[in-house]
Amino acid sequence: MAEKQSGPQDEAAAGGSASAQRLWERDSELHSAEQAVDKLCREFAAGGTKIGELLLFAGPAGMGKTTMLEQVRRIAGARKDSTVLFARGSERQKREPFRVLRQLLLPVLGGLGQEERNEVFGNWYNIVAPAVGLAPPSDEVERLDPQGVHDGLDFVITQLAPRRAPLVVVIDDLHVADQESLAWLSSFAVRARELPVLLVFAYRHEFDEEARPFVQQIEERAERRHELMPLNPLSIAEIVHSEFADADDAFCRQVWAVTAGAPFDTVALLREVRDQKLEPIEENSPRLRDLAAAARGQGRDYWLDKLGPTVIQFAWAAALLGTEISEELAAAICTQGPAQAAQSVRELRRLRVLTSQPNGKLEFVHPLIATSIYQSIPAATRTGMHGIAASAIEDRGGSLLSAFRHLLETHPGEGDDNMVRKLRRAAAENLAIGAPTPPAAVWSAPWPSRRTSTTAPRCCTNSAAPPCSPTPRRPPTSCAARSTSRTASARTCGSRRCSGSPR
Hints:
This protein is α/β, with parallel strands linked by helices. Helices cover about 50% and strands about 10% of the residues. It has helices at about 20, 25-45, 65-75, 100-110, 115-120, 125-130, 145-165, 180-190, 210-220, 235-245, 250-260, 265-275, 290-295, 300-305, 310-320, 325-335, 340-350, 365-375, 380-395, 400-405, 415-430, 440-445, 480-485; strands at about 1-5, 55-60, 85-90, 165-170, 195-205, 225, 355, 360-365, 490-495, 495-500. The protein has a six-stranded mixed sheet with strand order 1-3-4-5-2-6, with helices on both faces. The protein starts with a strand and ends in a 5-residue tail after the last strand.
């Protein structure tokens, strides 16, 4: 998402309350972010070009990382002529190759005029455009070299950054970014120092094993790194008193005890206290633990009671989609008409579940809310809704790259040739845009009518190895010739070995 002189539309992690709009015990982190943005803009105005920095915010769930990134976006968006690009990882979209990079780059690259596009892409258009969603994968391409796609992305961003500088790239929930985006970002963190770019990432320490080498590279290259810690009892007491001026001290201490100082849990608990019309006195302190557990667990009964049977269906559909939620698509999944869907969105915004973004898409106020609502969907209902989502995406012209993750969550009947063909085509599209390997579940889907080898291609078998050298190679003189290459010979690149076409 590209933002020009603009910040987020809503106080995303704040939940709209006055207590959460302030960043408690985050003065040093906020000052660091302000310094980083100020340095980028000041040095760029002075003619500097090699001024890139990397700013990291890490910590457990609920520590305020999302709120901190919103502040970064607000600070950067308020600066004249700055450009802010934003993306967010998603647990349910983690298997979509280049998903985070698409969310990050497609708005700005899609807005280029033809002349500027030619300059930014050079000879790399046929290779990079399918990866970032500007063009569909070519039917003539069996696979692209993943390193070639990385090199092309390096070239495109190197050309784009000076044209949109000073450029602030903000990514939330990096720990659930797709592997292809994470691998490129880890290598680009080096090149960013040579550009007028500030990279700002937030994540939990919950990376998959194969992702850890990339994270280590990112952390080693960070000029500014902050670990967000729980709030102390005094700060929690101030938050409580900002909501309930007459709250007892014992009540405040119990709020801190049951939330362990997590800002998100504290705000959620106080919302429950208000909804339950619970008086904030010492006598009611024993009830806080149960209320905190309910607010933290937020199961199906919790959301059904809070949202009602109609609105919760739209919320479930939105949770299936993950990030950058289309209201029309979510309405199709839960079979709501335009008027009812609009009413559901208004109610979810009022209850601080969904928020609108500058590009017109919907987002969950906080990733933890999205996860909670998704987990509240009954298993059978969830399977059926994934099937409807896959069909709705295809019916609206979406690619199998967007639909296949929903297909993988369904239970096709025996002999469902159409389902298998879609999964196999999705695997082919993965390879055609330069993803090292499709998900194992795609390759293991057998043909019902005839048995064939289901061995996945042996590309980049050492998945935990760091990416190849980030220095771009000379772009190919003929992208089409490179793209349609079907060589079966193995290619060695550092510690990775990439083979030819899958059998």
